[in-house]
């Protein structure tokens, strides 16, 4: 069951940082519910092994490690109480994660004005929550969505926007600079927010931010607090996932002198981000440390 979820995350059948985190939480819950062990020690080592399997699936998503940490942490000193505690942790994480996305929609949509054209990249449930909430509130908005090569997550975005009735234009990723003058606001999701407020998100996000900056268009990231990375407090770098060449070029094998590079994410420096909308408020990127300290409970200790 853990391997099944791990494989779905690895193959991107389950994708998007929030969904990955909730799927991992649910997998750990189901795992401990049926875990057949007779001591707390055995429980602990089986849980750690399961957590490790999940953590190895997609290296960039800090939502995954934050979720696993929140779910697998328990204080109980007997087996059955520990089992119950992990199940309760998982339920709490899933519920609060869904609520967080809804709340981000509420908070982020306040910055959307009637008549705005919003550019979005990839397929982010948090970014879509902002866009959909603005639409539900009766603001007449339009969206420009990028394809998001090589996996075309933009197609998921246009499908969803079409279902909810938001007029949308689809563009190739390289058309962003050509259309940026038509855009009023950029809204994207987040895989990771670092302690200094930089954003790790789908490859291409940083080019969009650069275009938005040059054209003086506001750039918003929508990120639940569990997308913030405690490790970056101590200067850890975020590992950028490199995926297989076949995602970019089917017949790459026939070339003798070619190497296909396929980084899945990139880093947008905080200087290009106007606001990060979290479920606890809209913050300037420079305030990211506060989220890590106050909401995730981490701080620098000597
Ligand atoms: C998805 C991606 C999304 C973030 C946020 O990448 O970069 O913008 O994960 O998504 P991939 P959400 O398709 O490679 O997982 O807001 O849904 O958590």
Question: How does this model look, in words?
Answer:
The protein has helices at residues 2-10, 17-34, 40-55, 62-72, 79-109, 125-136, 153-164, 176-179, 205-214, 288-295; strands spanning 117-120, 142-146, 168-171, 185-188, 192-193, 199-202, 219-222, 265-268, 275-278, 281-283. With 302 residues, it is of the alpha/beta class. The chain has two domains: 2-103, translation initiation factor eif-2b, domain 1 (Four Helix Bundle (Hemerythrin (Met), subunit A)), CATH 1.20.120; 105-295, Translation initiation factor eif-2b, domain 2 (Rossmann fold), CATH 3.40.50.10470. The protein has a seven-stranded mixed beta sheet with strand order 3-2-1-4-7-9-10, with helices on both faces. The mean pLDDT is 96. Ribulose-1,5-diphosphate binds at residues 15-19, 122, 124-126, 153, 189-191, 201-202, 264. Pfam families: IF-2B. It catalyses: alpha-D-ribose 1,5-bisphosphate = D-ribulose 1,5-bisphosphate. InterPro entries: IF-2B-related, IF_2B-like_C, Initiation_fac_2B_a/b/d, M1Pi_N, NagB/RpiA_transferase-like, R15Pi.
């Amino acid at each position: 069951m853990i391997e099944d979820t791990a494989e779905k995350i690895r193959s991107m059948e389950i994708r998007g940082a929030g969904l990955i985190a909730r799927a991992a939480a649910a997998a750990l819950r189901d795992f401990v519910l049926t875990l057949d062990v007779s001591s707390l020690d055995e429980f602990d080592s089986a849980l750690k092994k399961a957590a490790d399997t999940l953590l190895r699936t997609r290296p960039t998503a800090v939502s995954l490690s934050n979720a696993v940490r929140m779910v697998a942490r328990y204080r109980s000193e007997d087996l059955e109480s520990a089992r119950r505690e992990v199940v309760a942790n998982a339920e709490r994480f899933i519920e609060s994660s869904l609520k967080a996305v809804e709340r981000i929609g509420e908070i982020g949509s306040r910055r959307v004005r009637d008549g705005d054209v919003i550019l979005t990249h990839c397929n982010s449930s948090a970014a879509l929550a902002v866009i959909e909430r603005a639409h539900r509130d009766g603001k007449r908005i339009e969206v420009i969505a990028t394809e998001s090569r090589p996996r075309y997550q933009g197609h998921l975005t246009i499908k969803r926007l079409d279902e909810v009735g938001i007029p949308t234009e689809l563009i190739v990723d390289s058309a962003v600079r050509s259309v940026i003058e038509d855009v009023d606001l950029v809204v994207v999701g987040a895989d990771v927010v670092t302690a200094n407020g930089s954003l790790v998100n789908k490859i291409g996000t940083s080019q969009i931010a650069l275009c938005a900056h040059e054209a003086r268009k506001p750039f918003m990231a929508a990120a639940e607090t569990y997308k913030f990375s405690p490790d970056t407090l101590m200067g850890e770098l975020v590992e950028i996932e490199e995926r297989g060449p076949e995602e970019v070029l089917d017949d790459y094998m026939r070339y003798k002198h070619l190497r296909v590079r396929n980084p899945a994410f990139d880093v947008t420096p905080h200087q290009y981000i106007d606001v990060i909308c979290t479920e606890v408020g809209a913050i300037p990127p420079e305030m990211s440390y506060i989220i890590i300290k106050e909401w995730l409970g981490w701080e620098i200790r000597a």
